[in-house]
Amino acid sequence: MNMTLHAFIELLSLYPIFGAIAWTLGGIFYRFFYVGKLRQKDFKRLEIDEEPFITIMIPAHNEEVVIEETIEYLMNEMEYHNYEVLVCDDGSTDTTPEILARLSIKYDNLRVLRINKNKGKAHAFNIGLSFAKGIYILSNDADTIPEPEALWKYMNYFLRAGGDNIAAVSSNISVQNRSLIVEKSQTVEFSSIAGIIKRSQVGVLGTLYAYSGANTMYRKEAIYDVGGFRQDRATEDISITWDQQFNGWRAIYSPEIFFYTNVPNVMTTLYHQRKRWAKGGTEAWFTNFTRIMRHPLKNFPKVVMLLDQTGSILWSFYYIFFTIWLIIRILFFLATNDTEQLVHTLDMTFIFSAFISMVGFWQFFVSLALDNHGEKMKYLFFAPSYMIWYFQLSAITIVTTFIPAIMGVLGFGGKGTWVSPTRTKIKKKEVDK
User: Fold this and answer.
1) CA distances from residue 167 to 135, 233, 325 in whole angstroms, order as listed
2) I need a labelling partner for 6 at 20 to 30 A (CA). Which of 111, 154, 224, 389 fits?
3) Residue 133 and residue 53: Cα distance in Å, rounded?
4) Entry pTM
5) Calpha distance 270→184 (Å, rounded)
6) Which domains does the chain carry?
């Protein structure tokens, strides 16, 4: 029993290293060897009469800082003709309604749906579906802009041979605001964590853990097929990704399509965002555990993702308890003047931390080299700052939201309202690939 427990603890300690190695190898495989159905290599511009009608839907709540610039961009910069922009104003109390009223006079293909009571992004999206004219729906956050070529690139997936079973295509996240260290660190994160993991999931497992809520193109039929977005979940994008795949739809990640989003630039805002993400991840884990394990062989790719999520949750609890134990141990050796044990403990902690950092840095290097032909490699310098706060923030948010997430899935709690984070106004010249 002691040997089994010891082996389990050692395995849990090494979980971040195993994960980094596995996802990095998966990303390399996708980039150089994967040629499966989930990848689109050659993109073709569509003629006007070939363009399906698209609704760009923007659920918005108190977005006065960014909403006008986003709409102006969507109206004037997209290399597409057959589309509308539908803003679902979810009970905004700032000047967002006035801005939208003025812009709706200026643009004929801008429509505004006012929802008087704030009930959250998923609710606003579900209401908007009934008013959307498009057969394809681009979920677009108020602080997010897709690249000009994005719409016709998205359509290449849906219109190609065998594309009838595609539920949604999620694209490559890039950071708009890159002035502060915390912003530059997230540029590293989206390439090294989100980007390379999604490449691995698609290339190796043929499945996807989560769409990007900020910019994903959905087939409207596939949204209706699963009953819309779950309004009792912290992250509607993770939930619908699993729901659609369990209904037989195909989920796709396209690293060749870019969008640019506004990321938190203060730690308090970042913490609240990550708490919501962590809660949503645990909700998805708890919701899907039974239906995955009911048929594990049939759902083998999902079993792998479930095990990875289980490892993340267990490691987070382990990391928090281990850190507390380590601090107490060091304080005890200091109080008892046990220099030998103190030095030994610090040495072992340093060696282990250095090894994790070395593997993590390798993952950062490879992922930045793979993403957009290495354009973001210049941000590798900020990888250490990301590693310093990511492990702490990830573990803390998973642990602190674990019980609320379980209670929410069981029907206790789970409010649908949302609070928009503090936005940073971006000048267009700051946005590049």
Assistant:
1) 12, 20, 46
2) 389
3) 8
4) 0.90
5) 13
6) 1-433 (3.90.550.10)
